[in-house]
Design brief:
Layout: H1 3-13, E1 17-21, H2 30-33, H3 38-50, E2 56-59, H4 62-65, H5 69-85, E3 90-97, H6 101-114, E4 119-122, H7 128-135, E5 141-147, H8 153-156, E6 160-161, E7 164-165, H9 166-174, E8 183-187, H10 195-201, E9 207-209, H11 219-226, E10 233-237, H12 239-242, H13 250-271
Parallel strand pairs: 1-2, 1-10, 2-3, 3-4, 4-5, 5-8, 8-9, 9-10
Antiparallel strand pairs: 6-7
Helix pairs in contact: 3-5, 3-13, 6-7
């Protein structure tokens, strides 16, 4: 899916919500635990309940890798289910990979070719030759970590480099790399005051924004500074939606929470004339 197709879906569905599929079996309701693949069944129930309210889904691969081979199979079944039943939805492998050229190519093949994700998150701090192998996949999107939502982001990402900051230099330099038209950037919602600076450097790029909800980020503030003429935002919510209930009604509860966010997003799009 191209970013233009993503924009079209956002405007048609009146939502720029991305739901994080971060399954923790310890939080599953009891009735799922006896099933052959509780992780997939949990994900499937969330997807079935929310797909009309979301523009994207983002499995964090750590939650699957931690379960060994069975977790990897659950991830594969989840992306296959999404691609087969909801091809209009943008899929993100939250893998945060990044290494020298040949290794990056293998990471890209794993998630773009084998698992058929539309995009994946990549750490940019080894420089251009660690990212361009991902960008070589012309029909896929690479999402660079720019300014993350965790407290430790201030350890390095906002450090001064001459008259700029490191996260802004990451964005500036990466936009000159081969294939940069296929770049998005991760910008944490808990850093809403930085969106004006980012939009001055990257006015047209999509931003993937975690941190709304459980981490305390404000949807209104993010949109005030981050929305552009093409929407340009994917707002991720994970725990606040998928763990809205720990009981048998977890999927219904997830839908209620997603609907609250989608309704707010629809109003924001209307107010922006989009």
């Amino acid at each position: 899916m191209t970013t233009q197709q993503l924009t079209n879906q956002i405007l048609a569905k009146r939502t720029f919500l991305c739901i994080g599929l971060d399954p923790d079996p310890a939080k599953f309701p009891d009735h799922l635990r006896s099933l052959e693949d509780p992780v997939f069944e949990f994900n499937k129930a969330i997807i079935d309940a929310t797909h009309d309210l979301a523009a994207a889904y983002k499995p964090n691969t750590a939650f699957y890798e931690a379960l060994g081979l069975s977790g990897w199979r659950s991830l594969e079944k989840t992306i296959d289910y999404l691609n087969a039943n909801h091809p209009d939805i943008f899929t993100i492998a939250d893998a945060k990979r990044g290494d020298i050229g040949n290794t990056s190519t293998m990471y890209a093949k794993a998630f773009f070719e084998q698992l058929q994700f539309d995009s994946m998150t990549v750490a940019p701090y080894m420089g251009s030759d660690s990212v361009e192998p991902f960008l070589a996949f012309r029909d896929k999107t690479t999402i660079l970590l720019a300014l993350t939502s965790n407290p430790g982001a201030f350890d390095f990402q906002t450090g001064q480099i001459e008259d700029s900051e490191l996260y802004l230099e990451v964005i500036r330099k990466s936009m000159a790399w081969k294939g940069s038209e296929n770049l998005m950037y991760v910008v944490g919602a808990t850093k809403a005051e930085y969106f004006t600076r980012i939009r001055a450097v990257a006015p047209n790029q999509f931003l993937l924004v975690p941190g709304v909800g459980a981490q305390g980020g404000s949807l209104g503030e993010v949109c005030r500074f981050g929305l552009n003429a093409h929407v340009g935002l994917l707002i991720n919510s994970s725990r606040g939606i998928i763990y809205a209930s720990g009981d048998a009604d977890f999927a219904d509860a997830a839908r209620r929470e997603a609907l609250k966010i989608q309704s707010e997003m629809s109003a924001i799009l209307d107010a922006a004339g989009l």
